[in-house]
């Protein structure tokens, strides 16, 4: 799902403009989401190789070396992506609290 979000970045931005929703993600945050999507893709490929019925110790060794090599190359990007996820969850929590307060006010009136 994250990969689709990254691929549909421009249409999502246009839809947000049409709906008059403030864009809350900066370009650096979109880049961090793209990097996180790449990390998930590397993990997915590795797990698929490890779970094959024909997998052997040699296959597992090769798959894990591939994964660690690719993740080491992306290490600085991964830490940035982790920070983006943390910031996104904080924003989501703040928005949820705002919506709950509005709903509470609406119900009490």
UniProtKB/TrEMBL annotation:
Organism this protein belongs to: Mythimna loreyi
Superkingdom classification of source: Eukaryota
Protein name in the entry: Uncharacterized protein
């Amino acid at each position: 799902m994250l990969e689709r979000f990254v691929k549909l970045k421009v249409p999502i931005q246009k839809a947000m403009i049409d709906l008059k929703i403030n864009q809350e993600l900066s370009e650096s945050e979109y880049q961090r989401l793209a990097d996180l999507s790449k990390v998930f893709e590397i993990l997915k490929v590795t797990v698929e190789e490890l779970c094959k019925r024909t997998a052997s110790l040699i296959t597992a060794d090769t798959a894990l070396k591939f994964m660690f090599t690719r993740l080491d190359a992306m290490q600085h990007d991964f830490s940035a992506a982790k920070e983006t996820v943390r910031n996104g969850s904080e924003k989501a929590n703040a928005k949820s609290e705002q919506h709950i307060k509005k709903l509470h006010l609406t119900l009490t009136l």
